[in-house]
Amino acid sequence: MTDTATAVPSTAASSVSLPSTLRLGLARGAVETKMFFREKDAVVFTFAFPIILLVLFGSIFSGSLEGTGLTVSQLYTAGLIGAGVMGSGFQNLGIGIAADRDDGTLKRLAGTPMPAAAYFVGKVVNVLVVAFLEVAILLTIGVLMYDLDLPSDPSRWVTFAWVFVLGVSAAALLGIAASSLPRSAKSAAAVISMPFVVLQFISGVFIPFTELPPWLINIASLFPLKWMCQGFRSVFLGDAGAALEIAKSYELGRVALVLGAWLVGGLVLCLTTFRWKGRKDG
Amino acid sequence: MTQAATNAATEAVTPAIRVRGLTKRYGDVHAVAGIDLDVRQGEVFAILGPNGAGKSTTVEILEGYRTRDSGEVSVLGSDPGRPTRLWRSRIGIVLQTANDAAELSVRETLRHFAEYYPRSRNVDELIELVGLTESASKRVRQLSGGQRRRVDVALGVIGRPELLFLDEPTTGFDPEARRQFWELIEGLAHDGTTIVLTTHYLEEAEALADRVAVVARGRVVALGDPATLGGRATAKAKVTWSDGSVETDTPTQTVLELSARYGGEVPGLSVTRPTLEDVYLRLIDPA
To answer: Residue-wise pLDDT tens for chain A (282 aa)?
Structure first.
């Protein structure tokens, strides 16, 4: 069948080639990131929150940790980097995709020739940009205000790189999976943020593990945030801080294992539970 | 559009949409209970019906959003139950309500969506076509309801679709905005785009559509030219005056008789045929 019906320029009529998924994914990423930084709620919620907390907590708790030469604010910097990375993936996508489902974004996109994969590539690009900026700002604050030493040993930056990539990917996949839980965009912030805030308190972001009862530590050990923060502490606190860990070691092998498991589990959850439609769309 | 020319041209080619025996159930509710439809290439086809009549479900099946329980459906020669990207690039959809991408400007939004299609329209020309030139740099969030709807239409036609779906496009418009919108749709139809329109406004169907299908209780209860739908053109005329009214096949005769009785002017005289609304209300009445 020829499309005689439309006023088509003759040049394009013969062979129609659709733009590649990667190109559209990157275009989505650019637009998602632009929209993210224009949406004040999202910026404050997922981006500025860890930064504000670091400045606040770092200023309030300025003591040092006995026998290590480290300060509490340095500990917070490492912990909040973990929380910031988790937030850019989990909170940002959990709330953002629930909003996309509610406000018609997903339905409109599903009606266009944009492939579904490009939507997710766009979200991942957005998360990477937000997480990268977040970490850069938190590190700058840590270095300038709280005497955090950036590691000079390249192997520690290698550790940083894999913890960051594994952590951000697992958090993003969990965020995508969690976005199907809220009934609407209005309830998304509460439904997604509640467990995340609780997780931060039991995962050693705000409160050192030495202060927590064992059963809470056991619960926290099931989730990726504890392990991500542990990995970041190994990078930024170094050998001096290992004594503060429960296991007296950063257990990097276990960090990789748990984050990897969450990555796989998150992917399975996404593939089995993702909804393109809102509940009211049936 | 010249109806005769369209008919002659489309008789020979595949219809844009062909539906036979379409059904869809939600639990015990038969939302669509056996619909047959043909939409010819290049025509404006309106689907009318009360809420819950099955028109949205039908249209969403045609758009590839919903699966069907049974029946044959072909949209631009393909099964919408298995939408491909190429097929999607040939249709345009204007959804009922959407509040998405509100933080982008009109131009940014259109530029982005233009990237999805193999042969998109020029963004600035499109902005002018939908009458948003002055608001092109505004964030979508800041637009009025009518302007927002124009963005929706622009997004629907940005890929030069052969077939455009419009779902209740002018709900909430003031009369002037509605007229302007109709002109926009007429322009698209004039360029040869096939348009499927669902609407609550009967005057909208009458103004835009070449043919109308009335859907009620999951079935097509009437189909045809809006001017003759449901025997409208041949129905009895109603002659009303101050002291009474009659329904008659010969209204001119009645008026002459009345004029003779009153000795000239008949007080409060009016002669009416059933409006599309009268016909419609009779058609959808379940009794």
So the answer is: 444 444 444 444 446 789 999 999 999 999 999 999 998 877 887 888 889 988 888 888 777 777 777 888 888 888 999 999 999 999 999 998 998 888 888 999 999 999 988 998 899 899 999 999 999 999 999 899 888 888 888 999 999 999 999 999 999 999 998 998 888 878 888 888 888 889 998 988 888 777 888 899 899 999 999 999 999 999 988 888 887 787 788 889 999 999 999 989 988 888 888 888 766 554
CA–CA separation, B287 and B283 (whole Å): 10
Residues B246 and B274 in one domain: yes
Cα first-last separation, chain A: 34
Q: State how far the alpha carbon of A213 is from the alpha carbons of A189, A210, A219, B78, B188, in Å.
A: 29, 8, 10, 62, 69
B134 and B190, same domain (yes or no)? no
Domain count, chain B: 3
Sign of CA dihedral B226, B206, B153, A282: negative
Distance from CA of A94 to the nearest CA of B (A): 17
Q: Which two tokens stand for residue A39?
A: 């949406």
A8: closest CA of chain B, how far (Å): 8
In a domain, B99, yes or no: no
Are B75 and B212 in the same domain? yes
A159 with A227: CB under 8 angstroms? no
For A228, the token pair is 């991500």
Considering the domain architecture, whether residues B187 and B55 belong to the same structural domain is answered as: yes
Is the same domain home to B168 and B84? yes
In this complex, do B103 and A34 lie within 8 Å of one another by their Cβ atoms? yes
Residue B245 belongs to a domain? yes
Which position has the token pair 């980097």? A81
Any domain includes B73? yes
- Are B86 and B165 in the same domain? yes
Question: What is the distance between the alpha carbons of residues B99 and A34, in angstroms, rounded to a whole number?
Answer: 17
Instruction: Please report whether residue B95 resides in a domain.
Output: no
Which CATH number does the domain housing residue B32 bear?
Answer: 3.40.50.300
Kindly state whether B193 is in contact with chain A, defined as any CB-CB distance less than 8 angstroms: yes
Range of the domain at B143: 106-159
Q: Does A26 touch chain B (CB under 8 A)?
A: no
The DSSP string of B244-281 is EEEEES-HHHHHHHHHHHHTSPPTT-EEEPPPHHHHHH
Q: Would you give the distance in Å from CA A275 to the centre of its chain?
A: 20
Q: Which of B100, B104, B192 is facing A7, going by the closest CB pair?
A: B192
Q: Which of B201, B226, B251 represents a domain boundary (last residue)?
A: B226
Q: Which residue in A16, A19, A105 is closest to B115 by CB distance?
A: A19
R_g (Cα) of chain A, nearest Å: 21
Torsion of CA A118, A124, A125, A126, to 10 degrees: 110
Q: Are B119 and A112 within 8 A, CB to CB?
A: no
Pick the last residue of a domain from B114, B142, B159.
B159
- Rg over CA atoms, chain B: 22
Say yes or no: B34 and B171 in one domain. yes
A 28-67: CB under 8 A from B: 31, 34-35, 38-39
Q: Are residues B206 and B260 in the same domain?
A: no
